[in-house]
UniProtKB/TrEMBL annotation:
<feature type="disulfide bond">
    <location>
        <begin position="99"/>
        <end position="109"/>
    </location>
</feature>
<keyword id="KW-1133">Transmembrane helix</keyword>
<feature type="domain" description="SRCR">
    <location>
        <begin position="31"/>
        <end position="129"/>
    </location>
</feature>
<keyword id="KW-0812">Transmembrane</keyword>
<dbReference type="GO" id="GO:0016020">
    <property type="term" value="C:membrane"/>
</dbReference>
<feature type="domain" description="SRCR">
    <location>
        <begin position="135"/>
        <end position="181"/>
    </location>
</feature>
<dbReference type="Pfam" id="PF00530">
    <property type="entry name" value="SRCR"/>
</dbReference>
<protein>
    <recommendedName>
        <fullName>SRCR domain-containing protein</fullName>
    </recommendedName>
</protein>
<keyword id="KW-0325">Glycoprotein</keyword>
<keyword id="KW-1015">Disulfide bond</keyword>
<keyword id="KW-0472">Membrane</keyword>
<dbReference type="InterPro" id="IPR001190">
    <property type="entry name" value="SRCR"/>
</dbReference>
<keyword id="KW-0677">Repeat</keyword>
<dbReference type="InterPro" id="IPR036772">
    <property type="entry name" value="SRCR-like_dom_sf"/>
</dbReference>
<keyword id="KW-0732">Signal</keyword>
<feature type="signal peptide">
    <location>
        <begin position="1"/>
        <end position="36"/>
    </location>
</feature>
Length: 198
């Protein structure tokens, strides 16, 4: 009778990779737009009512942008922005947002918080739909019917200069009528600007 001896050899290979320290412990308490205009810019979130951190653009899409715009009081989203440069980076970040139509704030959306920075060109942003709520002319007190046009968006306290791109007599006529003047005498271009622009 023949006997067989089987020898089995197992090689067990285990590897451990380093990864960002991920945490779902951070509580998002607020949102803001930076490095832009009142209705457009890079998104930052506040954690635990204190520190502002960057939002990375991984998986950033229209649904996430709509939630930001709604949370900030804008009527809607014009576009979500990816690949925005981040100057002074926060030491933590929030990323991989997965918002849906039922979410009214970013804190309600599924996301990942990390102890890693986004990367210098990985900022997420939005351009929200803005509603012009007021208009004024910036001029000398002696010329109340002439000056540089500024607007407020969504009742903001910030006045924004209007750029001359595409500015014509029809636009000037609308401004004059809105300010209570009977009509337009002249539309002006090339005026010096200081401050935020739209």
């Amino acid at each position: 009778m023949k006997s067989f001896i089987f020898r089995l050899e197992f090689v067990l290979l285990i590897i451990v990779c380093t990864s960002p320290q991920l945490s779902l412990q951070m509580v998002l308490t607020d949102v803001r737009l930076v490095e832009g205009q009142p209705n457009s810019g890079r998104v930052q979130v506040q954690i635990d009512n204190s520190t502002w951190i960057d939002v990375c653009d991984d998986m950033w899409d229209d649904e996430d942008g709509r939630v930001v715009c709604r949370q900030l009081g804008f009527p809607g989203l014009d576009e979500h922005l990816r690949g925005l440069p981040i100057g002074q980076q926060s030491t933590k970040s929030a990323t991989r947002f997965n918002c849906d139509r039922s979410d009214s704030t970013l804190s309600e959306c599924r996301h990942v918080s990390s102890d890693m920075m986004c990367g210098s060109d990985k900022g997420a942003g939005v351009t929200c739909s803005g509603v012009i709520t007021d208009v004024r002319l910036v001029s000398e007190p002696s010329q109340p019917n002439s000056g540089r046009v500024q607007v407020q968006i969504n009742g903001s306290i910030t006045w924004i200069d209007v750029c001359e791109n595409g500015w014509d007599e029809d636009d000037g006529g609308v401004v004059c009528r809105q300010l209570g003047f009977p009509g337009l005498a002249q539309h002006l271009r090339g005026l010096p600007i200081a401050g935020q622009q739209i």
